[in-house]
Structure formats: C-alpha cells, structure tokens
Amino acid sequence: MLLSSRSRARAFHSFRQPTLIAAAIFAALQSAAAWAVEPFTLSDIRVEGLQRTEAGTVFGSLPFRIGDTYNDEKGAAALRSLFGTGLFSDVRIEVEGNVVVVVVQERPIISNVEFVGTKEFDKDVLTKALRDVGIADGRPFDKALIDRAEQELKRQYLAKSLYGAEVITTITPQERNRVNVTFTVTEGGVAKIKDIRIVGNKAYSEGELKDLFSLTTGGWLTWYTKSDRYSRAKLNADLESLRSFYLNRGYLEFAVESTQVAISPDKQDITITINVREGQPYVVTGVRLEGEYLGKEEEFKSLVTIDPGKAYRAEDVAETVRKFTERFGAFGYAFARVEPRTDIDRANGRVAVVLQAEPQRRVYVRRVNVAGNTRTRDEVVRREFRQFESSWYDGDKIRMSRDRVDRLGYFNEVNIETNEVPGTTDQVDLTLNVVEKPTGNLMLGAGFSSAEKLTLTASIKQDNIFGSGNYLGVEFNTSRYNRTFVVSTVDPYFTVDGVSRALDFYYRTTQPLSSQGSDYKLVTPGASIRFGVPFSEYDTVYFGVGAESTEIRGDSDAMPNEYHAYRKAFGARSLAVPFTLGWTRDDRDSALVPTRGRYQRINAELSLVGDARYLRSNYQFQQYIPLGRGFTFAFNTELGYGKGLQGRPFPIFKNFYSGGLGTVRGFEQGSLGPVDATGAYYGGSRRINVNTELYAPFPGSGADRTLRLFAYVDAGNVFDERDKVKLSEMRASAGIGFSWVSPVGPLKLAYGVPLRKQPGDRIERLQFQIGTAF
C-alpha cells in the first residue's frame, strides 16, 4: 500500500508553502485522507535516497520503532518531523506489508558562496552578514532564503549610502547534489548629501546651526571623513546636538517637529530638511530643593551649577543632578533619585528649577568581583580599588577605583556594575568588568626628523609581564646625535602600600651640535634605582640613587674648546654617583591628548661623590584649559638650574639645551645658548622655556582629539653658569602646526617664524618629530 503516490509527491514538491512545517502538515493531511491504512505492527524500517545525511538523523526523527504499532497519525507525525529538520526537499512514506519505507530527497548543499563586483566591502563582512540569514558554505540550500540574502546585501549597501546597488543571484548546480551561489553586485555611485535645510529657525542663522552637525555637504576633506554620506544614526545624533544647543540657550520648549530625507531619481543626491519650533527663551528665576537631603541642604546647595538670572541651560541642570547623585553615593545611597522639574511662567519668559530628591536607602558593599581578566592577576586589579568590601557604599571611591584600574593601561574597557543582593535591602555587590588588551610590544622600525635625521629603533616591552602588573623593557635607539641602549624594569607595587621600584641600566652616546663635524662624542654607561611613594591619588614623591661614568671621546683638535678644557682639567672620564629626589602631580584628563587639568614635576639630581660634583634641578608646569567647541589653550613652562659643588664647575655634559621642538621652535634643535670659539653649541647650566599653544579641531575630523591643529608662541634660552640670566637674550618664535597621535607615536609638525633672534642664530622654520612631548 502507498501512503503518498509519486504523482501526489511531485505535486506537493512543487507546492511552495511559507514554511517547511506547513508543507509537511499539508502533505500528511492530504495523504491520510486518500490513503488510510489499517494499523499494523512494524517488522522493519528502511530509508532510501540518503547521500550525505546520516541514517541516524532520519531514525531519530521518526516517532516509531520496529515492534511498534504503525498508524496514519504516526505517519503524519513522521512527515512533519522530517520536514522540520530542513534537510529534505521531499519526503514520502511507503508501506510494503509490515515494512515502512522512508523515501527522502535531500536539499542541495551550498558548496561555495561567491561575490562579484563588491568593492565597498571586504568579503568577510558580507559572508558574515549572509551567514546570519542562513546562507553559508556547507548549509542546505533553500530558494526561500535567497530573497532574504539579497535584501540583507542591499541593507549593507544602504548603510554606506549606496542606494543604487543592485544584486543578482546565480545558482550553479554541482556534482553530488551541491550548488554554488554567486551574488553579482552592481554597486553604483555613492549617494551624497547635496543640501541640508533647517526651517523654522529665527534666533540663530541656518549656517550657525549646520555647523553643529557631523553630517555635511561636500567639502575638500569629505573624501576622508565621509561626512557627506547620509546615515540615520548620524542624523539622530545631529538632531540631539541641535536640541542641546537650544536647550542650553534658554529655549526650554524647543522641538524638532519633523525631518524629511529625499533622494534624487538617480539615487545620487540626498536632501535633508529639518523643521524646528524654537519657542521662547526662558530665564531662571531660582532653584528650589525639595525632598530629603539628609539634613545637608547647604552642602547640596553649594553643588548647584544653575545660575539664577541667566538663561536656562540643560547642561547646568544635568551637571547639578549628576553632582547631587554622586554626593548621595558618597554617603552610601547607591540608588538615590534626583528628578529635575521646571515651573514655567510663559507670560514673563521665566522658569524656576525644582530638584526633587529621594535618597532611597543606604547600602553596604558586600562583595567586589572582578570579571574578564583572563591574563592579569586579580591582585593587580584589586590593589587599585579604594572601595572595600563590607564598607559603606562610597560613589567617590568607586569612581576613583575605576579610574585607577583604567590608568593601568592593561584593558580596552573598564566599567563597574552595581547589583542588589537578593533577599536583602541594604547590600550590593560590585562587579568590575574589564576587557584585556595586548600589553606587549615588539617593534622594529625607522624614523626621520628634521633634527635627528635617520633614527633606527628596536624595542621589546611588556607592561604587564606574566599578568603581574610589572614592566620590563629593552630598547635600542640610534640617531645622528643620540644613541641609546636601555634595559628597564618597574614594579609598581614593590611594597603593599604602593611604593614603586624602578631599575635602569643604560649605555648612551651623545654628540652636541657643532659646526666642526662629528669627531667627538660623550659616552655614558650607568645604572640607577628609583622608588616612588604615593602621598595622594595625584601626588608621588620619587627618590633614588645611580652610578654613571661619562667619557669625552674624540680628537682634541676637532673638539669644541669647552669640552677640551673640561677634559684637560678633570680628565677624559668622570664618575658620578647622583642621588635623585622628585615630585609629580598629574590631574590631566589624558596623558596623550589632554584638554583640561594640570601637570607639575620637580626633579633634583645631586652628586657629592666621584669626579663630577654638582646639583641639577628642573621644574615643569603645564596647564590645559578647555575653551569649548573642541578648542583648548595649553601653557607649558620649564625652569632648569645647575651648579657645580665643592669648588668644581658644573659638568659640561650635564648642560641644558634649547632650540627646536619641545623648547623654542623655529630655531635649529639645540642651537640656542652660548657658542665657543669653534662654533660649538655646548648648552648652559640654566634654562628658561615658555610655550603657549591654542589647539583647534582639524577640519572635517569631527570630535577626533588625536588629530588637531595648533598655533603657538615660544620663548626661551639657556645660559652659562658664568653669565647672568638676561631676559634681553631670550629668543622667541610663533607659528602653526598640527599634532597627530599616530600608530607609531605622537607626531608634531610645526612651521615657525622667529620673533626675536640674533645674528648667527640657526633658523629652521619647518620641524617635525615623532614622540615629541608638548
């Protein structure tokens, strides 16, 4: 007896249902109605038509076994189950006596997925996108998925503003019931924003408002920034920038009423129209606190940044709410709520701000968990924590802990989650989630600067060796004037109290700038040990001792007079045992691209033992002031002082130098200060250096702080121990340049013009270097 005839099977196969399960049910019901069988006991089950699928897959899907009673309901269930696997395009059940024969036709397997004409995307990106919709090598082929695959490819191109992209799919049968799937893409041209219109604005010009947007019309740098390509996400972000602009200028009822995005018939030009309603500006009449403030209303009032009598600013309200929430957190109220409310007087254009506070409940921190540190040891992370377990929740300490862990530099991401402890009302658990990043660095490279010429570098550095938090580095550097070999190691927690220890072993050769060639040099091997003692979260005191030997090598006839005289008086080799003492305070928001904060450093080097006896000190002060709209004013000053001790002059090889990047730009590197009879610049024992810079965003770079333009004014010089410091001898310059935190290090290029110079000064207007500070 036949449960489903071949003619019916073919008809069913050509009947395309939305889903395989629906097709199976249809076939089963049709077969059961026409070919009912009397129940019988199964003596055998055979499977026919398998090529790649294991027989066990079929048997595992059947609702009956040998010895079971077979009936129509079990046959229909078997059809549904086998179609539900998605492996078969046709399934039949034949009954021969007491034997059930399952006849299947397997779906073709996708042998290969290929892309033709794709230039905008890498193949891997498209392959992953299609795998998510079911099209991938080795998967069963289903024509119903091809439409979904084409739509997904078009969606990928729409995200790139390629609205004219067309996709044609070709199915090529292969041997052994396999197929190749080829997607041929005609990408077309990129649709670009032709015009952005803002309608309804009265208080501010359209041009001023469009300057707030990251989306722009075509410009000279849009080939790099791609800001003229439409993106819904970018448009939403720009609309938020527009709202913030108005809300920070008193327009409390500002609204974006609608946006229209129109594309030209050839799908090449996009026009964006934004309709806004400004409303009227409001002035703040006062700030009122309501709710529970723990009896510390005056303390909270001191945190208010909203100014009565001035225009309403949403940023000030948000900042006040943030400070209130953080202050509640410092008292242990982890879930405090502060809701701002506005009482509007439309007739007079005034508004009163009400801050409603509900501190909720005070909580303890039961446990601090660390997650995601696959390499770094737990103790390395935990020793940076200032919030302890079984202590009151303190928001200030938690934020400080997060920042300290982030400053380790071992992780790409650092965040803290606060979770309530089930079954309690006064306890929370903190989970610090980190994402490890590679902390080792093997570098072989070459660089070029206007001062040092060709520089070869090689280094092996590991900031977090074996996950211990210790640093180990071997560095080799060679250039025209300076050659260095250094081995360094730092243990940031040499003691449990956070005292650090650093060991350095080095071999340096230096050749100061001279007009007589390069037949002399200073060779300095040495070693040192330093300890750093943290006195606060921002202050560290350093002290240490070292030993070094400096030899003046070269032909006396070609050597500058100052070096020849020093070698003649004190010998070619000088041994020194310098003791060092220093202090730093750093509260900048970033070490590479700071926009706010202050950095100070004092360092003193004292040698009372050996051939060279001297005091060498240096003070540096930096201040960064944000000016808004991406502008930053930066100020840097350095004061250096050196003095010979116990009747000996200050060693000439310890002199300060000035001129060039890092000091006074526009003058050749190291070319300022005293000059001897041979024309050699030998530096001086005292230095004054002042730099001012105004940073601006690079046009078209948006909020990217790693690429910035700057204008500068520099002044400074070095002075010999025998001469007085005269401000009239100061050199000065001004210029422009750009800085970029490149993959190989911070890069600065500056073009300067001397403002104060003397005859004989070496001028170098264009200067650049990788790795230059300030």
* Name given to the CATH homologous superfamily of the largest domain: membrane protein fhac: a member of the omp85/tpsb transporter family
- Unreliable stretches (pLDDT < 50, length at least 5) are 1-34, 445-451
**Continuous helix count:** 14
Gross geometry:
extended
Broad structural category: alpha+beta
Q: Which CATH class of the largest domain applies here?
A: Mainly Beta
Indicate the CATH architecture of the largest domain: Beta Barrel
* Strand arrangement in the largest pleated sheet: 19-20-21-22-23-24-25-26-27-28-29-30-31-32-33-34
Rg for CA atoms:
38 Å
Largest sheet: 16 strands, antiparallel
Q: How many angstroms does the end-to-end distance come to?
A: 91 Å
Mean pLDDT: 83
Structure in words:
The chain has 14 helices and 34 strands. The protein has a 16-stranded antiparallel sheet with strand order 19-20-21-22-23-24-25-26-27-28-29-30-31-32-33-34. Helix 2 packs antiparallel against helix 4. The protein is α+β, with helices and mostly antiparallel strands and 774 residues long. The chain is extended, with a radius of gyration of 38 Å. The chain has six domains: 6-106, Ubiquitin-like (UB roll) (Roll), CATH 3.10.20.310; 109-186, Ubiquitin-like (UB roll); 192-277, Ubiquitin-like (UB roll) (Roll); 283-358, Ubiquitin-like (UB roll); 364-436, Roll (Ubiquitin-like (UB roll)), CATH 3.10.20.310; 536-770, membrane protein fhac: a member of the omp85/tpsb transporter family (Porin, Beta Barrel). Mean pLDDT is 83; it is low at 1-34 and 445-451.
